[in-house]
């Protein structure tokens, strides 16, 4: 448990620094311009199997966030079923969500589990999350219902 508290404390600084970049919506991790996944194509994780930068000219808006795509085909697939491709927990860190917090998800630290895209904050956090992916997903799913509409700052103040 001390390791978890240490990780939470260490990443709290990241949230403090990154919190100002969040869009107005609190349920999606997006930049202050509303860009989700730092411009990475959400469909490419499933089709190419790696983070792929999208094109600013190929966009779609979902849950008040703008997604970029690397091809017209990926954009069409997303628009046909955005829930299938949008990252879990609005793109916030899956491990952080399991702990009851909202931390930035880094598009480079990801995993698809049961056809759902999960992001984590860093390599260290991804490694910790990988120790019990099913357990952390259960915890995160439970926590998400309580934290979805709260800002990262509100969660840290508790």
Structure overview:
The protein is an alpha+beta fold. The chain has one domain (2-157). 43% of the residues lie in helices and 16% in strands. The chain is built from eight helices and four strands. The chain has a two-stranded antiparallel ribbon. The protein has a two-stranded antiparallel ribbon with strand order 3-4. A hairpin with a 2-residue loop joins strand 1 and strand 2 (65-69). It starts with a helix and ends with a helix. The relative contact order is 0.17.
Task: Spell out the blueprint of helices and strands.
Blueprint: H1 2-18, H2 44-47, E1 55-62, E2 65-69, H3 72-80, H4 82-85, H5 94-98, E3 106-113, E4 116-120, H6 123-130, H7 133-147, H8 152-157
Antiparallel strand pairs: 1-2, 3-4
State the share of residues found in helices, binned by percent.
40-55%
As a whole number of angstroms, the C-alpha radius of gyration is 15 Å
Question: Strand-and-helix sequence, N→C?
Answer: HHEEHHHEEHHH
Question: What's the number of domains?
Answer: 1
Largest sheet: 2 strands, antiparallel
Oligomer: single chain
Low-confidence regions: 9-24
**What overall form do the CA principal axes indicate?**
globular
* Percent of residues in beta strands: 15-25%
How many E-type strands? 4
Overall pLDDT confidence: 86
Tally of alpha and pi helices: 8
Strand order of the largest sheet: 1-2
Structural class: alpha+beta
Q: What gap, in angstroms, lies between the N and C termini?
A: 18 Å
């Amino acid at each position: 448990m001390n390791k978890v508290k240490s990780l939470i404390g260490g990443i709290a600084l990241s949230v403090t620094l990154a919190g100002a970049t969040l869009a107005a919506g609190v349920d999606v991790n997006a930049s202050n311009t509303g860009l989700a996944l730092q411009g990475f194509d959400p469909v490419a994780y499933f089709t190419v199997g790696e983070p792929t930068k999208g094109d600013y000219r190929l966009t779609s808006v979902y849950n008040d966030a703008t997604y970029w795509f690397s091809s017209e085909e990926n954009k069409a697939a997303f628009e046909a079923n955005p829930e299938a491709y949008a990252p879990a927990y609005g793109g916030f860190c899956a491990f952080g969500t399991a702990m009851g917090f909202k931390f930035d998800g880094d598009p480079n630290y990801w995993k698809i589990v049961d056809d759902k895209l999960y992001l984590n904050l860093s390599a260290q956090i991804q490694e910790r999350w990988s120790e019990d992916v099913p357990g952390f997903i259960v915890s995160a799913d439970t926590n998400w219902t309580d934290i979805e509409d709260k800002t990262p700052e509100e969660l840290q103040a508790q």
